Amino acid sequence: MDTRIDEIAAGIYRLSTFVSEIAAPAGFTFNQFLIRGEEPLLFHTGLRRMFPQVRAAVARLMPVERLRWISFGHYEADECGAMNEWLAMAPRAEIAHGQTSALVSLTDMADRAPRILADGAVIDLGGDKRVRYLDTPHVPHGWDAGVMYEEATGTLLGGDLFTQTGNGSALTEGDIVGPAIAAEDMFGFSSLTPGMPGTIRRLAGLAPRTIALMHGPAFRGDGAAALRALADSYERRMTAQDGARLAAA
Ligand SMILES: [Fe+2]
Ligand SMILES: [Fe+2]
What we know:
single chain; alpha/beta; 7-stranded mixed beta sheet; binds fe (ii) ion
């Protein structure tokens, strides 16, 4: 397993590790995103067992002890399993996440108290980078779920949204909705809640130019259209499930 590094938007780096055993034969990627700035931010820590490898990848881009912010989609091993290793490595690093994540998991599980972000809160990373935190409860899973949006580059750090299998190019301008629907069919990883399409459509309002997938390539193009199409697909899935339930009743 090696970790490849690609700059997917100005000053935003995708660190990608491919694991061929998961969802074989296609395999599965685990991606972290480093935003350079005076106060660098790492979105997703990687699995705890992957820490030596991710640390080595970050070290190719900057001194690891300079890391200032750690954030992620929600409390799960691939999102934040190595958070305490990072806190130990980088003395000024703080975990930044929403209130639910902090109160449910992080105040107990993290070795330093997290910075609690309100929905819509902004962290200025210096340089020209600013990240906005947005609560996305249960989307695509986890009631503590949230995403970040880097405003200067128009990059949505979407976590598990649009998850897909395989190991293609770092950046695509092609379809990311079809592969996400196929992965949903395979894993059933999303919480199909009534609020879900609306939460995804709210993200479409950001009109991101790049969407950074945690599991898959980064997408460059009309992010609003991709998000609206994803919301539509989930809505159709829920309608079909309701129909099947009624037919069986
Ligand atoms: Fe997840
Ligand atoms: Fe994930």
